[in-house]
Amino acid sequence: MKTFFEKEGTYVNFKGVEQKVKRGSTMVVGALSLVDISTLLSGGEVTVNNPFYTTPVKTNYFVGQRGTL
Hints:
With about 70 residues, this protein is an alpha+beta fold. Helix content is about 15%, strand content about 25%.
């Protein structure tokens, strides 16, 4: 799981209104690290032992048993 943190701060938008930004974090499940990406781009292999990649992201409920018509 990769995490990105934002700093707390203030900025002024194009209308001149000052806006404050609170510190926060974003969790990205199943994301590759920069080292993994550079390894893949250089032709190497990356072993991923994460259940996120083995289970489908979406479940298609439409193809389930619908009974008689």
